[in-house]
Amino acid sequence: MNMNEIVSCEIKDKICTINFFNPKGNSLSTIHLLRLTKEFNDISYNDNVNVVVLRSSGDGAFCGGASIDELLQIDRFEKAKDFFYTFGKLLLTIIRCQKPVIARVHGKIVGGGVGLVSSCDYAIATKDASIRLSELTLGIGPFVISPFVMKKIGMSAFASLSLDTQWRDAEWGMASGLYSKVVNSKDDLDSEIEKLSISLSKTSMNSIQKLKSILWEGTDNFESLIDERSEISARLILSEIASGRLQKILSND
Question: Which pTM value belongs to this model?
């Protein structure tokens, strides 16, 4: 993978690998969100693809959530809402993708990164893939990603994760249903990803698409929820509390 590319896409033997990268913890800026959304839209109806693997570059976090740099630059409600809506739109595009999506998770997932993994159909993680919803500590909340996370792990686990903002380990992720499988090393991770993706690449797409419609049943209202909750997030991110806490995080990096 080219670590200089923000988002890249490679198709081989019916398997599409979508890779994203940001040197700052693989956090997601608007550019990342738009590029990833485009890739998933393009792949959804590509007859040369039967399965998608979502991965990130580097040895650190799989995804650090929304870009702190970009959040601090937001100074208007409309701009803030657009950012959060764009994040939610990516997650919606992933669950609507006509192909099964496997997340290759390593390192930490934080905030929106939890939403990203939740929107995938299957997630394989290394044992160091710890989990945190830190939004309340920033003066905001996990509003836009909440429909996807709650769909994946349920109300009780979401409440625990969002109210108690401490780190959870990969075993918690496995027990809650966020992760489908936890392995010891990146070599094991790649081996499991390869086995599953090859198997799915040979599966009837008609069967897969019908299965996906069942897996994501009850999500027809997600687009309206994203719109409503983007407004909540937009108003909170512009508060003095959120601005101060984001600035403190950035100055400590």
Answer: 0.95
